[in-house]
Write a structure and sequence with these properties.
By secondary structure, this protein is of the alpha+beta class. The protein has 11 helices and 14 strands. The termini are far apart.
Length: about 375
């Protein structure tokens, strides 16, 4: 058994009250000390496909540039505070005498446990923003470099992720990382992120549940070998949730979305797609199969909605067999991997000339829906705008 070498850092700090129950803490500390109490929570998935962490890898060129600046002779200045999320092992002790000033500020001491025997996951803090600066100071050839830190205390990893998304949502953070973190985020989010939380949650289920026909086929930061771009799948899901078969399960009047039924409908449909179009078009890079391309994914989503609408309303949705029957009415006219599309506009298009643009997606969608409805003895109104 390794003997504990835990000790306590006493850091003079300000406690700032925000709202009814939020507390922020601001303090200064030698940047060389930050790795002793705060780790970087790398985004990853475990063997059960559960999401852990939220940070992208260090950008080595960025770290090197900051390090050169810190080591320079020109009085380097890093005025922006890093942001750290502490767990509830960290506590704030107010100063004995109240100082003059606003009622929402208290002076005191932040008490932070540290132990050199701890693994990264054992540390009480996680860096929410500023990992590149911390890495640069850690590696810099300087004796010390004091920095400002803003911290909050919470034992909830979902809260960590929400704050990470909010801090970075106005910076050039990869959208795929934000989308992958959204399902596990909690608390208030900006509207443009909140509306994507439901489709991102459905995407996660489709991508990481073993029973899903799309298991590990969608490209995300923790699944970089997927053949389908996450943004293409998100657009397909958003379209159906806003005005398609998935709308039936989105919830209303305070009821929660039925994500399980959404996943079931999608799993049945994409299982049928795999069966009807076969292995030649399935699970191939978009350059080899336009079925896995943005134009294919999004247009097939509209066809899914059309088949479901023809089948019925409410929770009476097609199963794999019904979806497959609908898909077979158009399959002979599709050119996902070879040949030429006859889209009815007088301009034949080779299969690999189809691009992930609104114009091409509209053309393929119109063609699929027109063909499907004509086989049903119905008429598709081409004048309707899908985008």
């Amino acid at each position: 058994m390794v003997e504990s070498r835990e000790k306590l850092l006493h850091l003079p700090a300000l406690e700032i009250r925000q709202g009814e129950n939020r507390r922020l803490y601001t303090f200064a500390v030698d940047g060389k000390q930050v790795p002793s109490f705060a780790a970087v929570s790398r985004v990853r998935r475990d063997d059960q496909q559960q999401l852990h962490g939220y940070q992208r890898p260090e950008v080595l060129a960025h770290v090197a540039a900051i390090r050169r600046y810190v080591e320079s002779d020109g009085s380097p200045l890093l005025p922006n505070a890093i942001v750290v999320a502490f767990d509830d092992r960290v506590r704030f002790v107010p100063a004995g005498a109240a100082a003059d000033g606003p009622e929402y500020v208290r002076t005191g001491t932040l008490i932070v446990p540290v132990d050199e025997q701890w693994e990264e996951a054992d540390k009480p803090g996680f860096i929410v923003d500023g990992q590149q600066r911390c890495a640069a100071i850690r590696d810099a050839d300087v004796e010390a470099f004091p920095i400002c830190v803003t911290a909050f205390i919470t034992a909830d990893q979902a809260d960590h992720r929400s704050q990470f998304i909010l801090v970075n949502s106005t910076k050039p953070l990869p959208k795929g990382l934000i989308h992958e973190l959204l399902p596990a985020a909690s608390g208030p989010l900006p509207n443009q992120l909140r509306v994507r939380q439901l489709p991102a949650t459905v995407l996660e289920r489709l991508n990481f549940e073993e029973r899903s026909p799309l298991h590990r086929m969608i490209q995300t930061p923790t699944n970089p070998k997927g053949v389908i771009k996450d943004n293409s799948m998100l657009r397909m899901l958003e379209n159906s949730i806003s005005d398609g078969v998935l709308y039936r399960f989105r919830g209303n009047d305070g009821s929660l979305p039925n994500i399980g039924l959404m996943v079931t409908v999608l799993a049945d449909f994409w299982t049928a797609v795999r069966e009807v179009f076969g292995e030649d078009a399935w699970d191939k890079p978009p350059r080899k199969s336009r079925l896995m391309h943005g134009a294919g994914i999004i247009s097939m989503g509209y066809l899914m909605d059309a088949i479901a609408d023809s089948h019925g309303t409410g929770e009476d949705v097609p199963d794999t067999t019904v979806f497959a029957a609908g898909l077979k009415t158009v399959s002979d006219y599709c050119r996902w991997t070879e040949g030429t599309w006859d889209l009815g506009d007088g301009t034949p298009r080779r299969w690999n000339d189809i691009q992930n643009t609104p114009r091409d997606i509209q053309r393929i969608t119109d063609f699929l829906l027109t063909t499907y409805y004509s086989k049903q003895g119905k008429r598709h109104d081409r004048s309707s705008r899908l985008f």
